Amino acid sequence: MTSTKAAAIALQDHAALWSVGEIRASDVVSAACNALVAGLDTPGLRSLAACIRAEADYDVHGLLPAALDELGLTFYPVASEAGQEAAARALARHMLAGELTPREFTFRIHQRYGHEVPLTERLAELDDEYDVLEYGDRTVDQVDAEVTAEARRLAAHPKVPSQATDTPS
């Protein structure tokens, strides 16, 4: 069973990724279900977890802010800079968990944010480096190592308030 802290971080990550269009609303509903199973429990979370996945695109907009607020988590408005940064941190954690390769991670960051978000600028540059490896002295392993270091830096600050982590397991 997942710890309540891990479940809170996963729900926060799913909410951030959804707010920037990276994942579907039904994925947020699944994260809410997982949070309930892990021991987090509020009326808003139960309502969110009870969404029919086929109707999640309509329901999540109204239910997610209250569910997160009850857990002491942050709702990031769609396309906000804070939401973009939270989504980048969530993608970094996905890469570190082996769900994305370093190349896929930099590509997704670069494609979504370009060189516009200061927090992810180095990742966009590293994505460019992958494209020119055959013309330089660096290897894929060297760039992968630098991407991994950047991902660790981003993932080090999940920004989950302590209220969400103090819930008993």
Mean pLDDT, to the nearest integer, reads: 89
Strand content: under 5%
Q: Care to count the β-strands? A: 0
Largest sheet: none
What's the N-to-C terminus distance? 10 Å
Share of helical residues: 55-70%
Low-confidence stretches: 160-169
Number of helices: 9
Q: Structural class of the helices, strands and pairings?
A: mainly alpha
Helix and strand run: HHHHHHHHH
User: What is the radius of gyration computed over CA atoms, rounded to a whole number of angstroms?
Assistant: 17 Å
Number of folding domains?
A: 2
Shape: elongated
Summarize the structure.
This protein has 2 domains: 4-77, no CATH class; 81-155, no CATH class. It is 66% helix and 0% strand. It has helices spanning 4-19, 25-38, 43-49, 56-70, 81-96, 102-113, 121-131, 140-155, 162-165.
Structural write-up:
Helix content is about 65%, strand content about 0%. Residues about 160-169 have low confidence and may be disordered. It has helices at about 5-20, 25-40, 45-50, 55-70, 80-95, 100-115, 120-130, 140-155, 160-165. The protein contains 9 helices and no strands. The longest helix is centred in the N-terminal third of the chain and has 16 residues, at about 5-20. The protein has 2 domains: about 5-75, no CATH class; about 80-155, no CATH class. With about 170 residues, it is an all-alpha fold. The radius of gyration is 17 Å and the shape is elongated. Helix 2 (about 25-40) packs across helix 3, helix 3 packs antiparallel against helix 4 (about 55-70) and helix 6 (about 100-115) crosses helix 8.
